[in-house]
Every structure is written in structure tokens, then in C-alpha cells.
Amino acid sequence: MSREIVAGVDGSPESLAAADWAAREALHRGLPLRLAHAWRWEPLDLPLVQDRADQEHVADAVVREAEATIAGRYPGLALTAEVIGDTPVAALLGIEEHAEMIVIGSRGHGAVTGFLLGSYGQQIIAGATRPVVAVRSRDGDPAEPPTGHVLVGQLGSPEDSAAALGFAFGTAAARGASVRAVRAWSLPPLFAYSPLSMRLADDAGGLVPYEEKALSDALAPWRERYPDVPVTEHVELGSAGQVLLSASGAAQLLVVGRRAKRGAAGPRIGSVAHAALHLAPCPVAVVPQG
To answer: What is the per-residue DSSP string for 94-108?
Structure first.
């Protein structure tokens, strides 16, 4: 089965903005778009009349209104829409197998919301095996500049960042945009200086050239695969979250990687992705490693 882009909708302006962004991305990539609304009949233990048929009608109206809006804006788009009888997290994760990416809404500065309320957005991002894009909204319109580069954070080894870099280059190629790759670094504590690490740094001409070479090496295979995508490289001393956020003002998309982490409360998305999702002014793509 061919890939598709999946967007969660819930009737809110934020989710409609996410659907709009997903529609344009689907056109860039020549992929179909699937709109999904999660609804499951769960009668409340209250002395109220609860009509299942009415609630089903409301759920269907949500997805049909989103479908009509997107179809009207993008008449050439291959588009489907459906109501999924499940919780929001299970609904999106249950259909991600053939998804190129999942797109959800984000309400201004703060926690990821939109298709999801409370912690649902974080649960989807933490549990997804495909990239998840959180689209910020201003009055229902995506907060995305019409031009700009795709900004990507490169952390660790080339293998550590391969998935994020691949997504960033593929997105830039589809959009005719450039890539700006950023690597943040910090001075390690004195006890972390091993003879081997110091020799590698000395061979590179110092710590800064060592970090610059690490970034260049990580980008090399992607430059070769996407020779028509312009690339700029930036290495800066500081925390990864701070460095990426300071560079995100002119970006049309920020791409960060996510390692599989589990905490006492369940899956975690990592501090860099958390900072980007809460504070970046542009859409943020969180790409699981490997």
C-alpha cells in the first residue's frame, strides 16, 4: 500500500490549520491525505438523556466539515475522511503503519492540543513510529512563513540523527527549499576528557573544528542523495534546545529527532523535542530515531 499523510481533526480551528498544512504537504509530495476524527461512544454515569445517534451525527459532521473545507481549498488533492471508533491516541497510532507522517494541531504557545486535549498530543508523539508534525495556529491558519529553510537539529553520531536528517532533506526537496543543519555542543566536564577524545579533537584542530567535522560527516550522505538541495551548516556552543529555538525564527519547519525513552509516567519525547513543541514559532516535526 502506498504512503499517505494523516491529519487528526476535532472541529477546532487548530486541527483545521493542521489539516490545511497537511494538505499542502500532501500536494508537495504527491501523496493522498487522510483526515481522521476519533470518537467512541462512552455513556456518562449522569442523570441526563444521552443520545448515541445524535453524538454519532456530531462526530460525522466534524470530519465532513473538515473534508469539505480542505477539498474546497485544494480541489486537486486526493482526499479521504473518516470517523474512527477509538480514543484519539489509539486512533492515530492505529493507522500510522502506512502514514508518511501524522499531523496534529498545536494551540499557540503551550502544550500540544488541537486533535488532542491534555496529554494526548505528547502520547502520540512519544508512541508514534512515524514522524509527527505539530502545526501551530493563529486563528485557525497555520503559522508558517511562505518561504524559508527547513531547520534540522543534528545530535550525536550520523546514525543517531539519520532519520531526522532524511526527513528534513526529503521535505526540503519536495518543497524546493534549502536545509539549515544545526549542531549544538557544550564543553564536557573535566573528568569526561579521555585521551582518545582529546586526540580526536587535537587531530581535528580543536573542539570547534571537531564539532564542525562531526556535522559535515553526518550531512555527507544526504548531500549526495539530494544534490539539488542547498545546505548551510551551523555549529554553536550551547544547549541543543536553546540553539535550535534561536535559529527557528526564519524556518518554515523545524525537524528534531526523538529517541525511544520511557519514564515512570510512560513514553517521553525528550527535552529538545519538548522545548521545540512548546516554544518554536513554526511547525515542528518530531522524527523517531531509526
So the answer is: HT-TTEEEEEEEEES
The DSSP secondary-structure symbol of 45 reads S
* Domain 4-142: CATH architecture, name and number where available: 3-Layer(aba) Sandwich (3.40)
Tell me the three cell numbers of residue 7. 491529519
Q: Is 253 helix (H, G, I), strand (E, B) or coil?
A: strand
Q: Where are the domains of the chain?
A: 4-142, 149-288
Mean pLDDT, all residues of the chain: 83
Nearest to 32, CA basis, from 44, 45, 23: 23
SS3 content of the chain, % helix, strand, coil (to 5): 40, 25, 35
- DSSP strand pairing (4-8 vs 99-107): parallel
Report the pLDDT value the prediction gives residue 229, as an integer from 0 to 100.
98
Closest CA to 212 of 171, 184, 175, 247: 184
Q: Kindly report the CATH class assigned to 149-288.
A: alpha beta
pLDDT of residue 117: 35
DSSP collapsed to 3 states, 139-186: CCEECCCCCCEEEEECCCCHHHHHHHHHHHHHHHHHHCCCEEEEEEEC
Name the more confident of 147 and 36.
36
Answer whether residue 260 shows pLDDT above 80.
no
